[in-house]
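Sequence in, structure out.
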Amino acid sequence: RMRQTVLSIPYTRSLARKPRALLSKSSSLSTQSTDAAPPTRARIAIGGSKLSQTQQDGIYPSVIATSLQNSITTFESGLNGDEKLKRGYVDATMFLRNVHNQELEHHDKIELTGRFGYRTTSTDDERLSGDVMQEPSESGGNIYHNLTTEYVQQQLEQSSLVGLYQGKDNHDDEGRLLSQFRENMNLTYMAHNPEAQGSEMHVKGAPIGEIREFIQEKMTDAFVGLEQGVAEGQITSYGVCSNGLSLPSSHPLHLSWEDMLIASNKAAGIVHGDANDIVSSLSMIQLPINLLETHGLKVANRIKDYLSSPEREEASLPSSIRVFAMRPLTCYPDRGTGTGHPFKLVDYLIPKSFDDNGDKIWTHDSEGLLPLYTAVLNETMAHFDATHLLEIKEEEERELTMEERETLDGCKLLQSMIHDLDVNLSSGQIRSFAAYEEDLYSKVVPLIHDTFEELDADSADVLQRFFQVHGNAVRQSIAKTTRQLLKEGGDGVDKYDIPDNVSLQEFALDYLWKQECNGEHAKGPLIDKVVVGCPKAEHVVEAVKIADKFDSLS
């Protein structure tokens, strides 16, 4: 069995000049094993949204290099993240070659995936033909969605991933030869949320039938541009990344898989003519599937079964397309139709002390609140009890000064706030850490600032320690509440038998990997790859360990 490897790349931009300066000979990093990779590792894809947001130098290539060494070969570009993915891929591959003298061999080619659809303007007068308004942007302009053939062609022409794949530039800014990276690379470009084309019509009250017809027409336009891109060697194939595919047909932002295939069939005919041997270049769909959003499983089954049936032979469609499950650990309320903060299907590794190198424990292995939290809670309540001010009033028989009264009132308020935060832990009402953080920064922190003009160093330190351990206690509470909800089911949620010694993320990923086609024609695994967000290399290793354990128990 291959070892799980974590790679740290501290300064990737110097790889060409000093390839061996990054790692000493005594490094404990593993090299690639000669054993065949377990098949489930190959069913992990690395999501790009969180990676594209990271600003820390070396994180992106470190994640990709760690993935490559652990036989993960599919990497997704986040929104407007093509350049970051290109640099991360090139840096990671050069690092492995130059530092480890390592040529990675895989059964499949490296696959990079990009996406298009949304565009943000800085002013209101930058609207393009085909733009559909989505919402105002924070920069003062607007966010639009565009699927016109011309826009697709423009995106492919400007994409640095296409440039890498097509060989427009022989060398990058560091003077590195880029042709070596094209030889083992596939590039798939995805239309992102085609259903967003119908948002303006929905706001105006248009009938759902008209909206669906309009969306199919716009998808056809986009697929024409993508088919042309394949024909011209800009991309290997194309796909669709859509939240709407997983929504029920009654939802206004539902995307019909039948309409998607019809649009793909039409586009192939428009670009290539009516030749009998023409097959659409549609190769994959990416849609949300998780423990709380399961409609995507039905959609994936129907698509795969149809493409394996005799009916498909009458159309210019492939015999199969790959299904990528995204957001496997992030669930939105009401089976994906709700708004607000999502649920996270994860257990957390939380510290038992303030020592960075101290022991940690997984939330599913813990029973009750950790002693550290209880100790810090008592310490904080004691610090703000203001007993000495009450004693002054009683023992010295004098009225408190204005400043003393304000301090007394502030301490009472803080104690009340801390008491409420503590009670909320056991209420079962906190289900999202993002919601907790929002509440903290929009209500609690302003309350503290409004109550005290300034805090002395000791008081500030006490509060900082409390919020640090309270945040971990919140994570513990959320994980346990989420587990209980999944076990009990109800209210549109299936009941799941989750072993107490299995983390939520392990159970959620295993659930997806176990899914099999259950239609009349298609056979085998239903989900080809699970897209996992891994903003750190350590997260890649955790996913690989789960995959390895899945294989060992299968």
